[in-house]
Inverse folding.
């Protein structure tokens, strides 16, 4: 304990000395704050930043998108309560409160406060308005899309507390309102609540629908099997029944992927990877190339790496498919050289034991050439050098296997286009 205190003290002194000798800009202070791993020091840095730069463009993101999760990770739930209560204008967004609550539930930290946040989110929803939307109809449509997510988080917390009947009544109002369909995780909660509250007809119909749409989970399949046996007296014929549903799901998914295909010439680039080797898109002509734009500080990027590894391993013996994990916008306000940026990326990959090829876009030129607006962003380029698929963000509620399977299917479809 004594050593930890000494280490923290020396860390603070070092920061103070460096700042005194070479004052950091506001952007650099924001970057240091984000990367700090000493929780008391991070809170102190944030309070100073908030006081000194109340109008800085990074303050809202730090307040809403970073600090709440640091409170949770450090088991400081009461601190989070005070943090949110002291900044009501920053936390008047029902969707934001719901996301924070869902994170607490997923990590089983402060679920009692998570329920409080979701109740607050539901109460805020009727009068919720974001000034960024000037078109009333556009805003109404946005709220329609967000509402099911807020409701689901509340229902998931009820399910955690085994309040299945209440959760089912809440979910049945919104489960079919999701834009593009609800996630497998959300569907699983719905089926579970329907089963546990004895709404078996609705549970079976929901399970069948979710399997057909490719948005099921192993647990949904298990529950459907149990309902099938209860209804038929045995599992005779079940495998054929399930195979029919899953075949329909694959056909539907192929059609959805095909409809989303684009055809845009892929900008060429020449970068060095973390081992100093040149990586040129032109040299990969004739291959299917998967580009994954990421950074070491990007949580959603990192959360997708297990799925990306599964997909990459699937094509391990296929020289006609290449995966490039382009490290980009890594500096985030820090003054990093190409060598420093490459070292950060290589150190991360070594620590996580990922055997990925990592071109280093340290000046963000490829990021800009591909008009990337945020990460993670993925592109799949066909053998002729055309971008055929683009995806942005990650997919909460989907397992690594489901994400990998969809990516594998997309790659196989693109690879099969050229003769």
């Amino acid at each position: 304990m004594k050593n930890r205190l000494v280490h923290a003290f020396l860390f603070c002194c070092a920061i103070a000395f460096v700042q005194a000798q070479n004052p950091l800009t506001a952007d650099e202070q924001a970057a240091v704050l984000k990367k700090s791993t000493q929780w008391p020091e991070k809170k102190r840095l944030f309070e100073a930043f908030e006081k000194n730069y109340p109008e800085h463009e990074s303050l809202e993101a730090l307040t809403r998108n970073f600090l709440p999760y640091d409170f949770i990770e450090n088991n400081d739930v009461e601190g989070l309560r005070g943090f949110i209560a002291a900044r009501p204008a920053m936390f008047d967004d029902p969707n934001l409160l719901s996301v924070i609550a869902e994170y607490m539930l997923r990590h089983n930290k402060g679920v009692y406060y998570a329920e409080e946040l979701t109740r607050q989110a539901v109460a805020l929803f009727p009068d919720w308005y974001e000034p960024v939307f000037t078109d009333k109809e556009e805003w109404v449509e946005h709220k329609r899309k967000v509402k099911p997510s807020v409701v689901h988080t509340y229902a998931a917390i009820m399910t955690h507390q085994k309040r299945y009947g209440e959760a089912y009544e809440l979910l049945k109002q919104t489960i079919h309102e999701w834009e593009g369909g609800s996630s497998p995780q959300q569907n699983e909660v719905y089926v579970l609540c329907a089963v546990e509250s004895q709404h078996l007809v609705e549970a079976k119909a929901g399970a069948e629908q979710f399997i057909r749409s490719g948005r099921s989970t192993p647990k949904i399949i298990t529950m459907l099997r149990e309902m099938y046996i209860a209804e038929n007296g045995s599992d005779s014929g079940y495998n054929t029944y399930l195979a029919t549903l899953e075949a329909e799901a694959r056909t539907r998914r192929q059609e959805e992927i095909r409809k989303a295909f684009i055809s845009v010439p892929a900008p060429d680039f020449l970068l060095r990877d973390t081992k100093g080797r040149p990586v040129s898109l032109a040299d990969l002509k004739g291959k299917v190339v998967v580009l994954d734009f990421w950074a070491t500080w990007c949580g959603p990027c990192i959360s997708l790496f297990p799925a990306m590894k599964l997909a990459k391993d699937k094509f391990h013996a296929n020289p006609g498919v290449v995966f490039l994990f382009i490290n980009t916008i890594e500096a985030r306000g820090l003054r990093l050289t190409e060598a420093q940026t490459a070292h950060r990326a290589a150190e991360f990959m070594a620590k996580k034991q990922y055997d990925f090829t990592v071109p280093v876009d340290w000046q963000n030129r490829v990021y800009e050439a591909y008009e990337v607006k945020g990460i993670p962003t993925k592109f799949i380029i066909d053998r002729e050098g055309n971008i055929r698929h683009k995806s942005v963000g990650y997919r909460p509620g989907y397992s690594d296997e489901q994400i990998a399977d969809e990516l594998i299917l997309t790659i196989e479809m693109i690879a099969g286009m050229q003769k």
